[in-house]
Amino acid sequence: MIFHIGSLLLVIALVVSFFGTVVGYWGGRTRSANLAASSFHAVYAVAGLVLAAAVILWYGLLADQFQLAYVWNHSERALPLFYKFSALWGGQAGSLLFWTLLLSGYSVAVALTFRTRQAALMPFVNATLLITSFFFLVLLVFSVHPFEQYEFRPADGQGLNPLLQNYWMVIHPIMLYMGWVGLTVPFAFAVASLLSKKLGNNWVRIVRRWTLIPWMFLSAGIIMGSQWAYMELGWGGYWAWDPVENASFLPWLTATAFLHSIIIQERRGMLKVWNMVLVWLTYVLVILGTFTTRSGILESVHSFAQSDVGPYFLGFLILIIFSFIWLLFDRMPLLRSESAMDSVLSREAAFLANNWLFTGIAFAVLWGTFFPMFSEIITGQRISVAAPWFNKVTGPLFLLLFVMMGIGPLLGWRRTSANKLREQFTWPLLLSLLFALVYWLLVSKQFYPMMGLTACLFVTATIVQEFLRGVLARRAATGENPFTATWQLMRRNGQRYGGYIVHLGIVLIGAAVIGNQFYVQTTNVTLAQGESADLAGYRFTYNGLSAEHQDNRVEYRAYVSIFADDGARLLRTVSPQRNVYDKNPDMPTSEVGIYVLPSEDLYVVLNGWSENSATFSIFVNPLTLWLWVGGVLIVLGTLIALWPHPRRKTVPAPAGVPVRA
Amino acid sequence: MNRVIHLLRLTLLLFVFLALGQPLYAQDASTVTADQVNEVARELWCPLCSGVRLDGCELKACDQMKDEIAIKLAAGDDTESIKSYFVTQYGPQVLGEPPRSGFNLLAWILPVAVLLGGGLFVLTRGRSMMQDIRPAPVASSERPVPDDDYARRLDEELARHD
User: Are the Cβ atoms of B158 and A37 closer than 8 angstroms?
Assistant: First the structure.
C-alpha cells in the first residue's frame, strides 16, 4: 500500500512541477504577483512530495521490502545498515529519484533565499528549476518506476554491487550530485535574466555564490571518486579517463571557465554573451553526463536502444539546446559589452586565454568520450579512446593552463606597465628557471615532467609572492603580527585570497599527477610466507593471511611488513585485502594496503593466494598524498571565497573619533 | 655423401629458423617474469572492458592474453610486434587510442583544429574589442525594463504570501 502511495506522490509531483513551470513562466511574463507566488508554492510542494517519495523508498530499503523490484535488485538482508541507506543512489531508479530530491532541495534553498528579492527574476528561476524537476519526474513516472512491485515477496534480495560497498562510495555520489544538480541554479538565473530582459550584471553577482557552492561539491566529489578508485580498484591509479569520470569532469571544466569569466563581466561589463553560453554549456553537460551514465550509450551504441531513459534524455537535450540558442539570439542586442579591451597584457586578456583553454580541454574530453561511439557507427569497428589519447591531447593544454594560472592574477586590469611586469614576474621567473636547470641537471632529463613541475613551482611562487605582498602591506598599515595580517587579508579579501588557495590546491594536484604519470615504480611478485621483495629502496615481506567472515562477505587479509634501509627499519605492516561477497562471489573487491609518506605512497594490492604463498602488485606512487591535500585546499579556498567578508564602511567617521583598523 | 646431406640439413634448419625470425635459443615461457609481462601489458587495453588497462584487468580473457605475452616474450618477440599481434587478433580496441588512419584520424585532428580555430576566433574578437573604443549601448537603449515600482510591489505581495 505504502509503495502505491510512493508512486502516487511522484505522479502528483509531476503534475505540480508542470503547473509550477507554466505559472512561473506566465507569472514572470505577465508580472502577476499571484502567479509568481504560485510558482514558489509549487517549488515547496514538489520538494515535499519528492522528499516523501524518497523517504518511502528508504523505508523499503531499510525494512527489507523485497517485493519492491528496486530493493530486491540493490539490497539484501545481510547488507550493513549504512549501505542499505546508500543503496538509494546505488541503482538507476533510486539515483534519478535522488537527483530529483537534491534538485528540489536546491530549488527550495533558492526560493527561500530570494522570496522577497529579485522579484522580476524569481518566477522564471522557479520555472526553470521546476521544468528540470518535471523532466526527471517524467523519467521516474514513465520510465524507471522506483516503486515497481512483484506480486510476491522474495525471501532475500540480490545484494548491492560489491564495488559500491565502500565508505567513499557513500559520500562520493552525494558530493558529485550536489555539484551536478546545483549547477542547474546558475543556469536558471541565466534563463531568468534572458526572459526578463534584466541583463545587467545583477544575475552574475547572484550566481557567483550559487556557482561556487556546487563547484566546490563537484570538485570534492571528483577527488573523492579518485580516492575511491585508488583505494578500491587496486590498479595503482586514481583516474582512468573512463566515460563516467569524464561526465563529472566536463561540467567542472566549463563551470571553472564560467567562474573566471564572470569576474570580467562583474568588473568590466564584458563577455556577456560568452557567460551565457558557458552557463548553458555547463547545464547541457550536466544533463548529457547524466544521460551518458544512465543510458549506457558509451558502452556500446546498441545499449542505447535497450535503455528506457535514453530517448527521454535525447528529447530533453534537444529541447534545452535549441530553445536556449533561440532565446540567446533573440536577446543578443541587449548583451553588448559595456567596455572594450585595452591591452593584451591585461587580466581580461589572460582570462580570455584561460577560457579558451578550459573550453578547448572540455571539447577534447567530450570528443574523446564520444568518439568510440562515432567510430562504431561510421566504421562498424569498436575502438577504445583511453588514457594514452587523453594524456597526449589534453596534457599540453593543461601545461599551458598552469602557466596561465601563474600569469593571469599578476596582470593588472586594463593594462600592465613594463615596470609592473618586471616587479611581478622577476622573482617567480628566476626561481622557476633555476628549478628547471637543477631538475634537468640533477634529477631527470625527461622534458614533460620538468616543464610541468616548473610550471607548478612558478604558480606557487606567484601565489606566495601575492600573499607576502598583502601581508607586508597590512603590517605596514596596521602593525598586525604576520598571522593576524594573513587572517585579516583572507577575511577581508576572501574572493581573491580564497582563489589563490584554490590555485595552490590545483598546483598540488598537478604535481601529484606528474609524479604518478612519470615516476611510478611497480612490481608483481608471488611471495611465500616470510619471503621478501625489494622495490625502490623498500623491502616488502609477506607474513601470512587471515580470513574473517563479516555480515555479507569474507575478508581475506594479507599482512605485509614494509622496511626501509635494506630491511633494517620497519616502517609499517599493511594489510591489503580481498572481499568475497556471499551474493556476488565472482566480483571480489580489493582494499589496498597503503603506507603514506609525503614523498610517495607504498601501495600493496593482494591479487591472489594459495596455501603458502600470495601474489601481490606493489607500487611506489610518488607525491600522491598531495592530490588529496590539494583537494582539501580547493574546498578550503572555496569556503574562504564564499565566506561573507565584512562590508567596507563608506560613512566617514566623525572628527576626533579614532578609526579601528 | 652423408656428411654433405647432414650439413645441408643443418643449413636448411638454420634458414628455417632465420626465416621465421625465431632466435635459436628461445626461452621457456615460465622463465618470463610477471614484471616483464606487465611491462608489455601496460601498453595494451582489455578488449572487453571499457578503458581498463590489460595489466590491471582480472578477466579470464585478459589472463590468457597475459599468458600469450609471456609465450611471445619467451619466443623473443618485442613489445611492438606483440602489440601488432593483438591488434590483428582483437582489433585496434586493444591500443587504448584510435589508429591514426582513415576515419579515426579525425579523433586526433579535430581537437587541434577546434582549439586553433577557437584561438583564432579569440584573437580576432579580442582585437576587434580593442579597436571598439566607442561606449557600447546598454540595455537602456532597448525596450524599457520593468520599473522599480512594479518590482517593489511584487516583493511586497510575495512577502504577504509567505
Answer: yes
**Which of B155, B156, B160 has the highest number of chain A CBs within 10 A, making it the mutation to test binding with A?**
B155
Q: Residue A173 and residue A171: Cα distance in Å, rounded? A: 6
Report DSSP state, residue A661. Answer: -
Q: Is the pLDDT at B27 greater than 70, yes or no?
A: no
Report which DSSP code applies to A162. G
pTM, full prediction: 0.87
The C-alpha atoms of residue A497 and residue A242 are separated, in whole angstroms, by 34
Contact B82, B94 (CB under 8 A): no
Q: Give the residue on B whose Cα is nearest the Cα of A241.
A: B51
Beta bridge partners of A554: A549, A580
Contact partners, residue A444, CB within 8 Å, separation at least 6: A450
DSSP for A322-384 reads HHHHHHHHHHGGGG--SS----SSSHHHHHHHHHHHHHHHHHHHHHHHHHHHHHHHHHS----
| For residues B138-156, average pLDDT | 45
Q: Can you tell me the distance from the alpha carbon of B55 to that of A236, in angstroms, rounded to the nearest whole number?
A: 11
Among residues A341, A361, A374, A646, the alpha carbon closest in space to that of A490 is found at A646
| pLDDT the model gives residue B132 | 54
Nearest CA in chain A to B50: A299
B46-92 pLDDT per residue, tens: 888 777 888 888 788 888 999 999 999 999 899 999 999 999 988 88
- Residue holding cell 545583477? A202
> CB-based contacts of A31: which residues, under 8 Å, 6+ apart?
A120, B146, B150, B154
Q: Write out chain B residues lying below 8 Å of A36, CB-based.
A: 154, 157-158
- How much of chain A, in percent, has pLDDT values that exceed 70? 95
Q: Residue B154: is its pLDDT beyond 50?
A: no
Q: How is residue B24 written as a grid cell? A: 635459436
DSSP collapsed to 3 states, A469-492: HHHHHHHHHHCCCHHHHHHHHHHH
Is B5's pLDDT higher than 60?
no
Domain ranges of chain B: 28-102
Q: Cβ contact (<8 Å) for B115 and A364?
A: yes
Please state, in angstroms and rounded to a whole number, the distance separating the CA atoms of residues A422 and A73.
65
Nearest CB among A119, A243, A299 relative to B151 is that of A119
Alpha-carbon distance values, A48 to A54, A108, A136, A148, B104 (Å): 10, 10, 16, 21, 50
Q: A286, A298, A314: which is closest to A367 by C-alpha?
A: A298
CB A380 within 8 Å of CB B93: no
Q: What mean pLDDT is predicted for residues A463-490? A: 88
Please give the average per-residue pLDDT across A197-220, as a whole number: 91
Q: Which of B50, B95, B104 sits opposite A242 (nearest CB)?
A: B50
State the pLDDT at residue B17.
43
Angle (CA) A213-A460-A432 rounded to 5° is 150
Spatial CA neighbour of A195 closest among A23, A327, A320, A326: A327
Q: What does the alpha-carbon distance between residue A508 and residue A522 come to, in Å, rounded to a whole number? A: 23
Please report residues of B whose CB lies closer than 8 A to that of A339. 135-136
- Chain A residues in contact with B55 (beta carbon < 8 A): 235
Do the Cβ atoms of A341 and A349 come closer than 8 Å? yes
For residue A24, is it left (φ>0), alpha (ψ between -120 and 50) or beta? alpha
pLDDT at A260: 93
Whether residues B51 and A386 touch (CB distance < 8 A) is answered with yes
The class level of CATH for B28-102 reads: mainly alpha
Q: Where are the beta strands (DSSP E) in B40-108?
A: none
Name which of A344, A292, A331 is nearest A313 in CA terms.
A292
Residues of A in contact with B126 (CB under 8 A): 341, 344, 349, 352
> A360 contacts in B (CB within 8 Å)?
111, 114-115, 118-119
As a whole number of angstroms, the distance between CA A348 and CA A408 comes to: 9
